[in-house]
Specification:
The chain is an all-alpha fold. It contains 17 helices and three strands. It holds the Pfam family Citrate_synt.
């Protein structure tokens, strides 16, 4: 009997939230191309779409934006718990602990959209609070006049962020909100299917994201770009790596066998920002050289730019600390997770897959 591992290719649920088609390079959110949403909408509108199934009208968007803004404050007991955590505890573990500590606020089952909004709103505040605590700097309270993405940058820096940086990070957040039945989404849907509360389901998803095979941050891409240093060094540096059998970070994807639509959209967004931040121009040139060399060294392998490459460019440009990369990814993906939880409870049946016993039988 063939070995069965990883559930790869096994259909576990029906969903109308998102479509990922790696062969065609398609990423769809609720009937819209994710690329178009990233280029034409703000975080709030796309989060509303994933949670509710339709893009909001002006009144709905205003109400939703206000709901996100009004739910950013951390409860005193969550601050106290974070204050007591060991300094060496990594950010993803802190997020998991903080969300778990809010379980009493989310005991209602089935979970509601108000609970989803609360978790989406508060996650960036958890990250910012812990970041300032470990940096021995003063916590910057949420600014209710700023949108979700701009406020996240504001809480980290204490300064109203550059408009170009907000646009780029907004696109990143939208393009990483949802990505089908990934490990985090599957973990969350499995937990909520037992009629556990939403805090437990999101904590489980955070635990999955914490693993480097799922939530691996684009820090290796940044390391590569830093080692290249200047576009004049790019070809020689990459030829040396490829000749020795090494990998170019940020190229190729397990799912996408054509251009990663998230990378395409981020490239288009950042192309408008070249004059405003030289980092993007450098990234563009490195990408062009890498694609040409990959086709030369590995013809027919279909190794294109993936989302991590442009995520690295965006996160570096906005001066996001590397230790916050996976946490920032989580602050985006929580929109997809909560959308899937709301969908799961509407048609709930507990996840109970079978396994094949490969051990010995008693005599």
């Amino acid at each position: 009997m063939p070995k069965v591992t990883g559930l790869e290719g096994v259909v576990a649920a029906e969903t109308n939230i998102g479509l990922v088609d790696g062969e065609k390079g398609h990423l769809v959110y609720r009937g819209y191309w994710a690329k178009d949403l990233a280029l034409g909408y703000d975080f709030e509108a796309v989060a509303y779409l994933l949670l509710n199934g339709t893009l909001p009208n002006e009144s709905e968007l205003d109400s939703f934006t206000k709901a996100l803004s009004s739910n950013r404050e951390l409860p005193a007991h969550v601050k106290a718990i974070i204050d007591l955590l060991p300094a060496e505890m990594e950010m993803m573990s802190v997020i998991r602990t903080a969300i778990s500590s809010m379980g009493d606020s989310f005991t209602q089952w089935p979970p509601t959209i108000d609970q989803a909004i609360r978790i989406i709103s508060i996650l960036p505040t958890i990250i910012a609070y812990r970041y300032h605590q470990t940096a021995n700097t003063a916590f910057v309270a949420p600014n209710p006049s700023l949108g979700h993405v701009a406020n996240y940058l504001y809480m980290l820096t204490g300064k109203e962020p550059n408009t170009a940086h907000v646009r780029a990070l907004n696109a990143y957040f939208i393009l990483t909100m949802e990505h089908g039945m990934n490990a985090g989404t599957f973990a969350a849907r499995t937990i909520i299917s037992t009629q556990s509360e939403i805090a437990s389901a999101i904590s489980g998803a955070v635990g999955a994201m914490k693993g480097p095979l799922h939530g691996g941050a684009p820090s290796e891409v940044i390391q590569m770009l830093n080692e290249i240093g200047d576009i004049s060094n790019a070809e020689a540096w990459m030829r040396d790596v490829l000749s020795s059998g090494g990998r170019l970070m940020g190229f190729g994807h397990r799912v996408y066998k054509t251009r990663d639509p998230r990378a395409v959209a981020l490239r288009e967004v950042t192309s408008h920002l070249i004059g405003e931040d030289p980092w993007f121009n450098f990234a563009f040139e490195v990408e062009n050289t890498a694609i040409r060399l990959l086709e030369e060294y590995k013809p027919g392998r279909r190794l294109y730019t993936n989302v991590e490459f442009y995520a690295a460019a965006v996160l570096s440009a906005v001066e996001m600390p590397t230790e916050l990369f996976t946490a920032t990814f989580t602050a985006s993906r929580v929109v997809g997770w909560t959308s899937h939880l709301l969908e799961q409870v509407a048609i709930n049946r507990i996840f109970r897959p079978q396994s094949i016993y490969t051990g010995e039988m008693p005599e």
